[in-house]
Amino acid sequence: MQKIKIFLVVVLFSGALFSQNKPAYKLYNAKGKKVSYKQMIKTMSKAQIVLFGEFHDNPIVHWLQYEATVDLGKQQKLTLGAEMFEADNQPQLNDYLLDTITQKAFDTVARLWKNYKTDYKPLVDYAKKNKLKFIATNTPRKFASKVYKEGFESLEKLSDEEKTWIAPLPIKYDATLPGYVEMKKMMGDHANDNLPKAQALKDATMAYFILKNREEGGLFIHYNGAYHSDNYEGINWYLKQQNPNLKIVTVSVVEQDDVKKLNEEDKKKADFIIVVPTTMTKTY
């Protein structure tokens, strides 16, 4: 009887501890089924391109991006690329990777995001250490701003050099894609017909530089805001327009009060969905 009592106490105590567990994230597949990190890496390793969507201020996603990159790098040759670097800053990024300029100089000559040091520098330094290419895939922000104000037509006025920093013209565009429709709706009175076109310029340009720089037999890992690849649209759509047979794995992230079950509306958002608590600390 005494042994039974002790056993029950242990079970109840263990249950109490378990109920107090606070997971930093949970990982789900497109069907909403829980999957392991190991399963995600195995799937990614068979792809040609990984679009690793993020919330720019979420530390858990940035940590997973780094860990996944390191683990995939043990298996195959990688090329890295990111929305956070604009194409005209590629020479400066290359100089840093080749160690011809210091981090301090890089900070001065390149337009780095305010959370670069905490969230993206580890990835750049990983590429530097392992002599990997890191591609600045995004259009210069001022060009997206021009499209927002004046439409795609404004891009025709760019110089020949400036046109090398965007996808080839004319930019293919489908205004009926749900993501672009929703974006315009979300912005309400602040939106015009050019707003999703500015987003499309970014998506098309990132897809262009991914395809231009990916190596046959290797894996290109691209880091971008989740909205740029959610629901297999955005960058993914442009990649598939060029090559429908590409093996692409997408990752998204959502915030929930309870991470133990994926909300129904977020299923099918990506091949893998990282669920993080709404209370997770932000990097800025």
How would you describe this structure to a colleague?
The chain is of the alpha/beta class. It is 43% helix and 16% strand. Strands 1-7-6-2-5-3-4 form a seven-stranded mixed sheet, sandwiched between helices. Residues 5-18 have low confidence and may be disordered.
Number of helices: 11
Compressed to H and E, one letter per element, the order equals HEHEHEHHHEHHHHEHEE
**Spans of at least 5 consecutive residues with low confidence:** 5-18
Main beta-sheet annotation: 7 strands, mixed
- Content-based structural category: alpha/beta
The helix fraction, in percent, is 40-55%
Cα-based radius of gyration, to the nearest Å: 21 Å
Task: Measure the end-to-end span.
Answer: 56 Å
| Beta-strand residue fraction | 15-25%
Average pLDDT works out at 93
DSSP strand count: 7
**So what's the overall shape?**
globular
Side-by-side strand order of the widest sheet: 1-7-6-2-5-3-4
Write the topology of this structure.
Layout: H1 2-19, E1 26-29, H2 37-44, E2 49-54, H3 59-73, E3 78-86, H4 90-97, H5 103-109, H6 116-129, E4 134-138, H7 141-150, H8 160-163, H9 178-187, H10 195-213, E5 219-225, H11 235-242, E6 248-256, E7 272-277
Parallel strand pairs: 2-5, 2-6, 3-4, 3-5, 6-7
Antiparallel strand pairs: 1-7
Summarize the structure.
This protein has 284 residues and is α/β, with parallel strands linked by helices.
